[in-house]
Amino acid sequence: MTTSTEVGIAAMDGPFARSSRMTVDPMRIMLVVNEFPPEKIAGTAMATRALAEHLTARGHQVLVVVTTDCPQAARDRIAPADYQLVWTPRRPFRGVGMAWRIWHAWRAARRFAPQIIQGQAVSCGLIAALLGRLLGVPSICYAQGYDVYQATAWQRRTEIRWGCGWPDCLLAVTEHLAGAIRRSVERPDIRIMPHAFRAADPMPERDCCRRRLGLSDDAKVILAVGRLERFKGHDVLLAAWAKVAPRMGDAKLWIVGSGSQRQALERQVAASALSSSVTLLGALPADAVQERMAASDLFVLPSRSEPFGIVLLEAMAYGLPVIASDVGGVPEVVPADGDARLVASDDAAALAEALLQWYRAQRGLSAINREHAMRLEWRRQVRRFESLYQQFMSARGDAP
Q1: Pairing between strand 28-33 and 116-119?
Q2: 256, 291, 314, 400: least CB-packed within 10 angstroms?
Q3: 183 with 250, same domain?
Q4: What would the pLDDT profile of 35-61 be if each residue is shown by its tens digit?
Q5: Which DSSP state fits 174?
Q6: Domain of residue 314, residue span
């Protein structure tokens, strides 16, 4: 089987460095994405904003073209940024979705004159490839996961094949995703570009966070963070917790997130008499999530499906041991030699056993987990993108 190429591994080595100004000449970079904050607060949206911010901080000119519209109420919450942000107006009638997106992306590209165009999903990769050919600049498709895993048969024959096959460069967040792409398109040169996470600066101190949250020195806290949707598997976590909570002393389970399953999970907590040990915290701002991570002892990701799992990196950056479902790209995110346990998805008994084993071992925080995560912090990851862009611009004779 053809193997993927990893991008710029050398850029992940060496001491952790803060973001600095340019070490390469500035470039004009256009990012095309289907969702963006504040209209969408999800993995691809947040990753695109982080990439735009870090490229801009390093002196590049960045244009983000969002292929959807943003209500005025949400636009009013957008903080000023150094990169350019363009939203696509709502399409005038049905049946012109892709053509409408291409047209408005083309108008934005003509004004911006990018030197490289990157699509942040397969459909956006198709737009990037078309605009790249029209403008004579390199194009990149950055496949994120669900756009491939949840594609219909028709989408695999069209959108996946064209969006992954036409750009000059194809990136995938994991080798697992690259394998799924190969089932639809012959592309031997897929490169693996993992997701990255944004570390708090400075990172909150564990002892201070535990005192603010009223935790005693010996209190054990298990944390889960994710949207309250069925595919995130919080119902499986609660079923497992009902089996082990009586044998884990005063351990607490915190679940952070909001979603359509909130009421169902509340009923499950009440029916299992778990109210004294389980807290559904709802959606929290980023700094509050960081505080909870710093104060916790274990992180659990019980997803039924997960293309990558950026939240695992965020948790491991605090040294947290992790228990996660063995699905999608998760096995590639956690360190092979760290404190990470993978269990079958949708298996409450297996998850309960993993929780008990962790509780009995009492190993504390993991330096290996933290070191592994920090290799994919955005202030390092942005340099890998820079290296990639320069490589393809040089191949076109357009290096800055």
Answers
A1: parallel
A2: 400
A3: no
A4: 998 877 778 898 999 999 999 999 999
A5: S
A6: 206-374
